[in-house]
Amino acid sequence: MAQPLILASTSSFRNELLRRLQIPFAVKGPHIDESPLSGEHPEATALRLAQAKAQAVAEQTAAQFPRALIIGSDQVAACGEQRFGKPGTRENAQQQLRYMRNKEIIFHTGLCLLNSATGQVQRQCVPTHVGFRDLTDAEIDAYLDKEDALNCAGSAKSEALGISLLRYQRGDDPTALIGLPLIALCDMLRHAGVAMP
After folding, report:
1. pLDDT tops 70 at residue 1
2. Domain enclosing residue 77, as ranges
């Protein structure tokens, strides 16, 4: 009997991406503190939080799904020491985009697959290097008038109008920037015994 698959996320973007694989899955919100630790590198934060999300859902669903494969993912956008989370407000989104203009931002997407039956953990961080155009304030405002980017790390949805803000996007997995690296996840699922095409 196949192990149940659970996505430890309330993100509609991750849900939509996972549906591409045409494997049945459940969704459960992890409800964890996503604050970075002092001095923690963005890649380490993304990996730690991806695993923490998977482990939180494993604990929440242990009685119902004791043998589940649980997917956790987290993304940290950074430029040097500066980090960019979900802006939450238009003013924060404006500030983020003004700071990022004409700079390269690295989006570190952490991925974890936890086998709750065996305790085995697979983790990987998939970076995406994103170059932003030299955006004018008017372009930033016009973008925010049209795009709801307040729940998106770095305020730029590359899968929608945010693509117009960019000069380039470089990485091994185009789905990583959206929030769930499917190429890496497919490898992890195969390693866990899930039949993939």
Report:
1. no
2. 5-191
